[in-house]
Design goal:
The chain is 36% helix and 15% strand. The chain is an alpha/beta fold and 381 residues long. The structure holds pyridoxal-5'-phosphate.
């Protein structure tokens, strides 16, 4: 089956008891047993729930995985993955990564003795400077947030396999429609399903996928033991959102490419970050590992002041000023004061993340309306 067919059919079999075409929202905490231990595969909804099982089946198929697990947020999925490690283990991460991941690693797990190195993983040679016998995991985010750097997944996987290191890819920005890291050799894919997977800015959820049954069992154990599971209604919402993922992604990509092209030629714009641009420094790798270049565009302004950035955001009326991304509606964000505020300014600047950087989550509205809004807002800068 091709992607769009899987998104609609896999995990969406009619309900066996009624024939309902849509998987019911099994709003139950527990399940009657015929006699102790004799049940229909469900005992307690922290452990399993049929609405969640249906969604996990769909999610696994989208990433060409055997297994998927859902969590109550993207951060909860990340939390479970890091709990595979033990004190003394080390992780090599992308330096330009989601601020919440940085916070989880440095403020929560570092004090349990896990060490995190943050380096620009697009410069592969730098890996060897920090790689050592304690390195147990690579943590890749690609495209990165918010600078939209592209990390060569296959090249990292080659190093990882040589040294028996796990490779985890946060695939939130690409979505499984554009990029499938497991096919490139990664061990675990993680998503903030809050974003493109759900797609309608109405739910917070996380998920992970893997083809490694041993890892899956450890992660399922953590999911049940720590208990950060999503409610059945949210599983229903994400399952419903996924049915149009392929159509939404096509329009996100089309709109983002048009906006990036427009911004490149605008006299008030200093730099545009979009992996679809031929002069983007990782454009060739993006072409190799992604089907298209995604719906996120970042840019900075020539007049390097916070006031200019704020003026743009105030006047770009169709782009709501909000955290998050990946919904049908366009959003604008200011990483330095919003998503990445938890990263110290010095570290942010070192990663190339200027105070005037503006990030657009380009929605699926009509392209012309979005371009008109941007044109208007830039004239007000
Ligand atoms: C790339 C990326 N990974 C993970 C997360 C965390 O996901 P959640 O907000 O669903 O916990 C986010 C949230 O913005 C994100 O952008």
């Amino acid at each position: 089956m091709k992607f769009g067919t899987k998104a609609i059919h896999v995990g969406n079999e009619p309900d066996s008891s009624t024939g309902a075409v849509i998987t019911p929202i099994y709003q139950t905490s527990t399940y009657a047993q015929e006699e102790p231990g004799k049940h229909k595969g469900y005992e307690y909804s922290r452990t399993q729930n049929p609405t969640r099982t249906a969604l996990q089946t769909t999610l696994a198929s989208l990433e060409n995985a055997q297994h998927a697990l859902c969590f109550s947020s993207g951060m909860a999925a990340e939390d479970a993955i890091i709990k595979l490690l033990k004190p003394g283990d080390e992780v090599i991460c992308t330096n330009d990564l989601y601020g919440g991941s940085f916070r989880l690693f440095t403020k929560v797990f570092a004090k349990f003795g896990i060490k995190f190195h943050f380096i620009p993983l697009q410069e592969i040679d730098l890996v060897h400077i920090v790689l050592n016998s304690q390195t147990k995991m690579f943590w890749i985010e690609t495209p990165t947030n918010p600078l939209l750097n592209i990390i060569d997944i296959q090249s990292i996987v080659e190093i990882a396999k040589q040294y028996n290191i796990l490779t985890v890819v946060d695939n939130t920005f690409a979505s499984p429609f554009l990029q499938n890291p497991l096919d490139l050799g990664a061990d675990i894919v993680v998503h903030s399903a809050t974003k493109y997977l759900a797609g309608h800015s109405d739910v917070v959820m996380g998920c992970l996928m893997t083809n490694n049954t041993d890892l899956y069992q450890q992660l399922a154990f953590l999911q049940n033991s720590c208990g950060a599971v999503p409610p059945p209604f949210d599983c229903f919402l994400v399952q419903r959102g996924i049915k149009t993922l392929h159509l939404r992604m096509a329009q996100h990509c089309k709109n983002a490419a048009s906006i990036a092209k427009y911004l490149v030629n605008h006299p008030k714009v200093e730099q545009v970050y979009y992996p679809g641009l031929i002069n983007h420094k990782n454009h060739e790798i993006a072409k190799k590992q992604m089907k298209d270049f995604g719906g996120m565009v970042s840019f900075s302004l020539k007049s390097d002041s916070l006031e200019s950035a704020f003026n743009f955001m105030k006047n770009a009326k169709l782009f709501l000023l909000a955290e998050s991304l990946g919904g049908v509606e366009s959003l604008v964000g200011h990483p330095a004061t919003m998503t990445h505020a938890s990263i110290p300014r010095e570290d942010r600047l070192k990663a190339g993340l200027k105070d005037t950087l503006i990030r657009l989550s380009v929605g699926i509205e009509d392209t012309d309306d979005l371009l008109e809004t941007i044109d208007y807002a830039l004239n007000k800068v």
